[in-house]
Amino acid sequence: MSIATRSLPRTIGAHAILLTYTAIALFPVILVIMNSFKSRAGIFGAPLTPPTPKTFDLIGYTTVIGQGDFIHYFQNSLVVTVASLFFVLLFGAMAAFALSEYRFRGNTLMGLYLALGIMIPIRLGTVAILQLMVASGLVNTLTALILVYTAQGLPLAVFILSEFMKQVSDDLKNAGRIDGLSEYTIFFRLVLPLVRPSMATVAVFTMIPIWNDLWFPLILAPSEETKTVTLGAQLFLGQFVTNWNAILAALSLAIMPVLILYVIFSRQLIRGITSGAVK
Amino acid sequence: MAAETRPKRPFRWHIGIFLAPAVLVYTAIMILPLAGTLQLSLFRNIEQHQVFVGLQNFRTLFGDPNWSVNFWNALRNNVWFFIIHMLVQNPIGVLLAALLSSPRLRFSAFYRTAIFVPTILSFVIVGFAWKLILSPLWGVAPHMLDLVGLKSLFTPWLGKEEYALTALSLISVWQFVGIPMMLIYAALLSIPDEVLEAAECDGITGMSQFWKIKLPLILPSIGIISILTFVGNFNAFDLIYTAQGALAGPNYSTDILGTFLYRAFFGFQLQVGDPNMGAAIATMMFLIILGGVCVYLFLVQTRLRRYQF
């Protein structure tokens, strides 16, 4: 980039807009976490100030920790999300490659068939899914959730990944074929590394609905053993409607692990996006 | 693209192997149950037996005022919900991505990470947190407005019929702006430097470079985002449910198709759940979404130009 494109006012303007939006994005989160460390009087008296020694109080946290098994719920959510994500990305990339790379009879039809799932929420089939899980004895297992979320994530992953795979140069793949690489090697060694940035993007918004889903944990796996953190938080919040200390503490406990995980994970994600885009 | 020069081979097993896992899981867990549900909309439970009644359920949905008033209300609200997303969420997402992708911008990793934070939070957290913030009981929102001298503007937005839906739409925009931002950002980064340098050689820089060079190149991504927003909005349910409950108050003013379906399917208060009517509403949602997606696939996508670098 030449120096001609850089100018001080423009840089300042960009920072001003981004800072403003960052403030809007973070304000509610910070507000909730800040107030969760305060006494009831502090929460209502001065909601916008950080906790002072006078208003500092952990009563909310002691209430919450005395009530629910949040660490266990968190583990369940983690297992379900990671396993589903792995299957969605692997199966999705394979199918996207088949659809974008080969011409075969029924290609367009297969693409439309798989894309159908983007527009229909899998929730509409809940009753039949529940019957299926009951019949196969998978109710109240994490396996049921992983299966449902894999099916739910696949259509979008296939759709987006095949958009990106169309952009991978044909010459490169044909060069691989001339060198005698099998189709599997071409997929795993040539194409997958090239679409890594889009894989990272797909991963992020496959993961979010899975982590945050309330519906399927409630219906397929509501037992104490298999409760996810979202379901746990929802039930807890429902119980303590008027106990503001407990509500704010529960919200903070639900936010913080995700936030920590996200901060760790986002470095990888951003590196993936930027490194892949530099050609 | 014209790669049909390969000699005919007996059967290309690898295509099947690449497709099989995705197609099997998808068909068994998603398509078959969905088909089962759509089928339910043509049946009615009469004396413990599912009896085929044709389009009778749809006649009830559109003919019986108890149902049709609610249905049109939910559909209208849903359209408004979508319009707000298209007008607010996507332009903000494109703007943020364009700013973030400008070269040598400092702290861009920080901005990116921070702006995406609301998107990773669950509806349960978002719904509750905003309910608390907008609550007149806590007084954070009026206090904030007071700081800029606009306290008179405050009303309990979530409790007023005329504002509740817009407020909830904006909360949803707040939560999901990270997704268009990330998608556009990835698309902008994948534009090769040679193209931008060529533009600079021709004297196209800054704003005009964005409008003339970058925007046409990211149009396919904007198309994808629009259709994702459409589908997401017409399936929406969770935020309204956590913030306003299944009744989508006040006085059904925030009722969208998702909450309407939920009430029909599982029942609420005095009304008994009716899976068949629920399935009929689900079928209507299916048709609406199908219509939108067809418009995208056949009218929009075919006209977008794709570039291979």
UniProtKB/TrEMBL annotation, chain A:
GO cellular component: plasma membrane
Gene3D superfamilies registered for this protein in UniProt: MetI-like (1.10.3720.10)
Membrane spanning stretches: 12-34, 78-99, 111-134, 146-165, 186-211, 244-265
One GO term of the biological process aspect: transmembrane transport
Topological relation to the membrane, as annotated: Multi-pass membrane protein
Pfam families (UniProt xref): BPD_transp_1
ABC transmembrane type-1 domain: residues covered: 74-265
Subcellular compartments: Cell membrane
Stored InterPro entries: MetI-like, MetI-like_sf
Chief localisation class: membrane
UniProt entry keywords in alphabetical sequence: Cell membrane, Membrane, Transmembrane, Transmembrane helix, Transport
Highest taxon listed in the record's lineage: Bacteria
Protein family membership: Belongs to the binding-protein-dependent transport system permease family.
Name of this protein: Binding-protein-dependent transport systems inner membrane component
Organism in which the protein naturally occurs: Mesorhizobium amorphae CCNWGS0123
UniProtKB/TrEMBL annotation, chain B:
Coiled-coil annotated spans: none
Keyword Membrane: yes
UniProt GO BP: transmembrane transport
Cellular compartments annotated: Cell membrane
InterPro entries in UniProt: ABC_transporter_permease (IPR051393), MetI-like (IPR000515), MetI-like_sf (IPR035906)
Cross-referenced Pfam families: BPD_transp_1
Annotated membrane topology: Multi-pass membrane protein
Alphabetically ordered keywords of this record: Cell membrane, Membrane, Transmembrane, Transmembrane helix, Transport
Domain (ABC transmembrane type-1): residue spans on this chain: 75-298
Protein name per UniProt: Sugar ABC transporter, permease protein
Species: Mesorhizobium amorphae CCNWGS0123
Lineage: Bacteria, Pseudomonadati, Pseudomonadota, Alphaproteobacteria, Hyphomicrobiales
